[in-house]
Amino acid sequence: MPRLPTAKTTLSASMQLTSELVARTLRIVEEEGPEPNWSPISSRQLDALVSRVEQEAHDQEIWVFAYGSLMWNPGFQVAGSENAVAFGWHRAFSLRIERLRATSDAPGLMLALQPGGSCSGLILKLPCATKTQDLRTLLAREIRYAEVCDMVRWVSVKTPTGMRRALTFWASPKQSQLTQKIPLEEAATLIAQACGPAGSCAEYLHRTVLDLADRNILDRNLWQLQKLVADRLRISPPFVST
User: What is 112-144 written as a DSSP string?
Assistant: First the structure.
Protein backbone atom coordinates (compact mmCIF):
# COMPACT_ATOMS: atom_id res chain seq x y z
CA MET A 1 0.00 0.00 0.00
CA PRO A 2 1.33 3.48 -0.81
CA ARG A 3 2.62 5.87 1.79
CA LEU A 4 1.08 9.29 1.55
CA PRO A 5 2.90 12.53 0.93
CA THR A 6 0.29 14.46 2.94
CA ALA A 7 0.53 15.06 6.68
CA LYS A 8 -1.10 12.37 8.79
CA THR A 9 -3.23 14.96 10.60
CA THR A 10 -4.82 15.97 7.30
CA LEU A 11 -5.66 12.38 6.45
CA SER A 12 -7.08 11.63 9.90
CA ALA A 13 -9.17 14.80 9.83
CA SER A 14 -10.70 13.80 6.49
CA MET A 15 -12.04 10.46 7.79
CA GLN A 16 -15.80 10.19 7.50
CA LEU A 17 -16.11 7.37 10.03
CA THR A 18 -15.85 9.52 13.16
CA SER A 19 -15.65 8.62 16.82
CA GLU A 20 -19.20 9.95 17.21
CA LEU A 21 -20.52 7.60 14.55
CA VAL A 22 -18.59 4.67 16.02
CA ALA A 23 -20.10 5.39 19.44
CA ARG A 24 -23.55 4.69 17.97
CA THR A 25 -22.50 1.10 17.24
CA LEU A 26 -21.39 0.29 20.79
CA ARG A 27 -23.52 -1.51 23.33
CA ILE A 28 -23.17 -4.13 26.05
CA VAL A 29 -23.35 -7.64 24.61
CA GLU A 30 -23.18 -10.81 26.67
CA GLU A 31 -20.88 -13.66 25.74
CA GLU A 32 -22.64 -16.33 23.67
CA GLY A 33 -19.95 -19.01 23.65
CA PRO A 34 -17.83 -20.10 20.69
CA GLU A 35 -18.56 -19.44 17.03
CA PRO A 36 -21.36 -21.74 15.84
CA ASN A 37 -20.08 -25.04 14.37
CA TRP A 38 -16.48 -24.27 15.36
CA SER A 39 -14.35 -26.12 17.93
CA PRO A 40 -12.40 -24.00 20.43
CA ILE A 41 -8.71 -24.83 20.30
CA SER A 42 -7.66 -27.02 23.23
CA SER A 43 -4.64 -26.41 25.45
CA ARG A 44 -2.98 -29.45 23.91
CA GLN A 45 -3.58 -28.19 20.36
CA LEU A 46 -2.33 -24.74 21.33
CA ASP A 47 0.82 -26.21 22.85
CA ALA A 48 1.42 -28.18 19.66
CA LEU A 49 0.98 -25.02 17.58
CA VAL A 50 3.45 -23.12 19.77
CA SER A 51 5.94 -25.96 19.45
CA ARG A 52 5.52 -26.03 15.67
CA VAL A 53 6.16 -22.31 15.32
CA GLU A 54 9.20 -22.44 17.57
CA GLN A 55 10.63 -25.33 15.56
CA GLU A 56 10.05 -23.41 12.33
CA ALA A 57 11.80 -20.38 13.87
CA HIS A 58 14.95 -22.51 14.41
CA ASP A 59 15.69 -20.90 17.80
CA GLN A 60 15.93 -17.49 16.12
CA GLU A 61 14.16 -14.31 17.20
CA ILE A 62 10.50 -14.18 16.18
CA TRP A 63 9.07 -11.19 14.33
CA VAL A 64 5.32 -10.88 13.74
CA PHE A 65 3.85 -9.05 10.73
CA ALA A 66 1.07 -6.80 12.03
CA TYR A 67 -1.47 -5.36 9.59
CA GLY A 68 -4.60 -4.88 11.72
CA SER A 69 -5.29 -4.74 15.45
CA LEU A 70 -1.82 -6.03 16.30
CA MET A 71 -0.50 -2.64 15.17
CA TRP A 72 -2.46 -0.74 17.80
CA ASN A 73 -2.97 -3.51 20.37
CA PRO A 74 -0.15 -6.08 20.16
CA GLY A 75 -0.90 -7.69 23.51
CA PHE A 76 2.77 -8.21 24.40
CA GLN A 77 5.77 -6.07 25.27
CA VAL A 78 7.25 -5.25 21.88
CA ALA A 79 11.04 -5.68 21.88
CA GLY A 80 11.47 -3.96 18.54
CA SER A 81 9.51 -2.83 15.49
CA GLU A 82 10.08 -1.86 11.88
CA ASN A 83 7.92 -0.67 9.03
CA ALA A 84 7.34 -3.55 6.64
CA VAL A 85 5.68 -4.40 3.35
CA ALA A 86 4.44 -7.89 2.47
CA PHE A 87 4.37 -8.26 -1.30
CA GLY A 88 1.90 -10.76 -2.72
CA TRP A 89 -0.57 -10.15 0.14
CA HIS A 90 -3.28 -7.66 1.05
CA ARG A 91 -5.49 -7.02 4.06
CA ALA A 92 -9.22 -7.60 3.59
CA PHE A 93 -12.34 -7.80 5.73
CA SER A 94 -12.96 -11.41 4.75
CA LEU A 95 -13.29 -13.23 8.08
CA ARG A 96 -16.98 -13.71 8.82
CA ILE A 97 -17.73 -13.76 12.56
CA GLU A 98 -20.74 -14.23 14.83
CA ARG A 99 -18.86 -13.73 18.09
CA LEU A 100 -16.22 -11.38 19.59
CA ARG A 101 -17.33 -8.21 17.73
CA ALA A 102 -20.57 -9.68 16.38
CA THR A 103 -23.51 -11.94 17.18
CA SER A 104 -25.51 -14.54 15.29
CA ASP A 105 -28.31 -11.99 14.86
CA ALA A 106 -25.90 -9.36 13.54
CA PRO A 107 -22.80 -11.07 12.06
CA GLY A 108 -19.77 -9.04 11.10
CA LEU A 109 -16.33 -9.13 9.52
CA MET A 110 -12.75 -8.99 10.72
CA LEU A 111 -9.49 -8.50 8.85
CA ALA A 112 -7.38 -11.32 7.45
CA LEU A 113 -4.43 -11.43 5.09
CA GLN A 114 -5.22 -12.70 1.60
CA PRO A 115 -3.03 -13.46 -1.44
CA GLY A 116 -2.48 -10.74 -4.03
CA GLY A 117 -1.25 -7.16 -4.09
CA SER A 118 0.84 -5.70 -1.29
CA CYS A 119 0.29 -4.79 2.35
CA SER A 120 2.09 -2.14 4.40
CA GLY A 121 2.28 -2.66 8.13
CA LEU A 122 4.75 -3.37 10.89
CA ILE A 123 6.87 -6.22 12.13
CA LEU A 124 6.99 -6.61 15.90
CA LYS A 125 9.67 -8.52 17.76
CA LEU A 126 8.77 -10.89 20.58
CA PRO A 127 10.99 -10.39 23.65
CA CYS A 128 13.59 -13.16 23.90
CA ALA A 129 13.13 -13.58 27.66
CA THR A 130 9.39 -14.29 27.39
CA LYS A 131 9.23 -15.49 23.80
CA THR A 132 7.42 -18.79 24.41
CA GLN A 133 4.91 -17.28 26.82
CA ASP A 134 4.19 -14.32 24.55
CA LEU A 135 3.94 -16.57 21.50
CA ARG A 136 1.39 -18.75 23.26
CA THR A 137 -0.66 -15.70 24.26
CA LEU A 138 -0.50 -14.35 20.71
CA LEU A 139 -1.57 -17.63 19.12
CA ALA A 140 -4.39 -18.09 21.63
CA ARG A 141 -5.68 -14.65 20.67
CA GLU A 142 -5.44 -15.10 16.90
CA ILE A 143 -6.13 -18.84 16.52
CA ARG A 144 -9.21 -19.43 18.65
CA TYR A 145 -10.52 -22.51 16.86
CA ALA A 146 -9.04 -25.86 15.90
CA GLU A 147 -10.34 -25.57 12.35
CA VAL A 148 -8.11 -22.56 11.61
CA CYS A 149 -4.77 -23.78 12.95
CA ASP A 150 -3.38 -23.45 9.43
CA MET A 151 -4.11 -19.70 9.45
CA VAL A 152 -0.65 -19.02 10.91
CA ARG A 153 2.29 -18.95 8.51
CA TRP A 154 5.59 -17.27 7.68
CA VAL A 155 5.92 -14.54 5.05
CA SER A 156 8.83 -12.54 3.68
CA VAL A 157 8.54 -8.81 4.23
CA LYS A 158 10.62 -5.87 3.10
CA THR A 159 11.85 -3.49 5.80
CA PRO A 160 14.17 -0.45 5.76
CA THR A 161 16.99 -2.77 6.90
CA GLY A 162 16.31 -5.52 4.36
CA MET A 163 14.16 -8.61 3.97
CA ARG A 164 12.90 -10.42 7.06
CA ARG A 165 10.91 -13.55 7.75
CA ALA A 166 7.86 -12.86 9.88
CA LEU A 167 4.98 -14.79 11.35
CA THR A 168 1.50 -13.69 10.35
CA PHE A 169 -2.15 -14.68 10.22
CA TRP A 170 -3.95 -15.19 6.93
CA ALA A 171 -7.15 -16.45 5.32
CA SER A 172 -6.51 -20.13 4.68
CA PRO A 173 -7.92 -21.55 1.44
CA LYS A 174 -9.18 -24.54 3.42
CA GLN A 175 -11.82 -22.28 4.96
CA SER A 176 -14.00 -21.08 2.08
CA GLN A 177 -15.82 -18.50 4.19
CA LEU A 178 -12.50 -16.79 4.85
CA THR A 179 -11.37 -16.58 1.26
CA GLN A 180 -14.62 -15.66 -0.44
CA LYS A 181 -14.31 -12.18 -1.92
CA ILE A 182 -16.79 -9.86 -0.25
CA PRO A 183 -17.84 -6.71 -2.17
CA LEU A 184 -17.18 -3.48 -0.27
CA GLU A 185 -20.88 -2.59 -0.22
CA GLU A 186 -21.74 -5.89 1.47
CA ALA A 187 -18.76 -5.60 3.82
CA ALA A 188 -19.86 -2.10 4.87
CA THR A 189 -23.35 -3.33 5.75
CA LEU A 190 -21.98 -6.15 7.90
CA ILE A 191 -19.43 -3.92 9.64
CA ALA A 192 -21.98 -1.20 10.37
CA GLN A 193 -24.38 -3.60 12.08
CA ALA A 194 -22.06 -5.80 14.14
CA CYS A 195 -21.23 -5.46 17.83
CA GLY A 196 -20.18 -8.08 20.37
CA PRO A 197 -18.57 -8.39 23.81
CA ALA A 198 -15.22 -7.08 22.47
CA GLY A 199 -16.78 -4.02 20.83
CA SER A 200 -18.09 -3.29 17.35
CA CYS A 201 -16.69 -4.01 13.91
CA ALA A 202 -16.99 -0.31 13.08
CA GLU A 203 -14.77 0.47 16.07
CA TYR A 204 -12.22 -2.07 14.83
CA LEU A 205 -12.24 -0.54 11.35
CA HIS A 206 -12.01 2.98 12.75
CA ARG A 207 -9.02 2.21 14.97
CA THR A 208 -7.22 0.38 12.18
CA VAL A 209 -7.68 3.13 9.60
CA LEU A 210 -6.68 5.78 12.15
CA ASP A 211 -3.54 3.85 13.05
CA LEU A 212 -2.64 3.49 9.39
CA ALA A 213 -3.20 7.23 8.89
CA ASP A 214 -0.94 7.99 11.85
CA ARG A 215 1.74 5.94 10.12
CA ASN A 216 1.08 7.77 6.85
CA ILE A 217 -0.18 4.59 5.14
CA LEU A 218 -3.19 4.58 2.85
CA ASP A 219 -5.04 1.33 2.28
CA ARG A 220 -7.41 2.37 -0.50
CA ASN A 221 -9.96 -0.40 0.13
CA LEU A 222 -10.15 0.34 3.86
CA TRP A 223 -10.35 4.08 3.16
CA GLN A 224 -13.32 3.52 0.85
CA LEU A 225 -14.83 1.10 3.35
CA GLN A 226 -14.80 3.60 6.21
CA LYS A 227 -16.69 6.06 3.99
CA LEU A 228 -19.33 3.43 3.16
CA VAL A 229 -19.74 2.44 6.82
CA ALA A 230 -20.07 6.10 7.81
CA ASP A 231 -22.80 6.59 5.20
CA ARG A 232 -24.78 3.68 6.61
CA LEU A 233 -24.46 4.86 10.20
CA ARG A 234 -25.61 8.36 9.31
CA ILE A 235 -28.70 7.04 7.55
CA SER A 236 -29.69 4.26 9.90
CA PRO A 237 -27.69 3.79 13.11
CA PRO A 238 -28.08 0.20 14.38
CA PHE A 239 -28.78 1.21 17.97
CA VAL A 240 -28.08 3.90 20.53
CA SER A 241 -25.11 3.33 22.84
CA THR A 242 -25.88 2.70 26.51
Answer: EEEEEEEEEEEEEEPPSTTHHHHHHHHHHHH--
Type of residue found at 107: P
Residue 130 φ then ψ, to 5°: -125, 25
pLDDT in tens, 125-173: 999 999 999 999 999 999 999 999 999 999 999 999 999 999 999 987 7
What is the per-residue burial (b if ≥16 Cβ within 10 Å, else e) of 166-179? bbbbbbbeebeebb
Q: Which CA distances in Å does 38 have to 60, 97, 142?
A: 33, 11, 14
Q: What pairing do the DSSP bridges indicate for beta strands 162-169 and 152-159?
A: antiparallel
- Which amino acid makes up residue 149? C
Strands (DSSP E) along 199-240, which ranges?
Answer: 199-200
195 sits in which H/E element: strand 195-196
3-state SS assignment for residue 79: coil
> Are 197 and 97 contacting, i.e. CB atoms less than 8 angstroms apart?
no
Query: What is the tens place of the pLDDT at every residue in 83-104?
Result: 999 999 999 998 999 999 999 9
Angstrom distance (rounded) from CA 71 to CA 144: 19
Query: What are the pLDDT digits (tens) for 40-60?
Result: 999 999 999 999 999 999 989
Numbers of helices and strands, H then E, in the chain: 9, 7
CA distances 201 to 66, 106, 149, 229, Å, are 18, 11, 23, 10
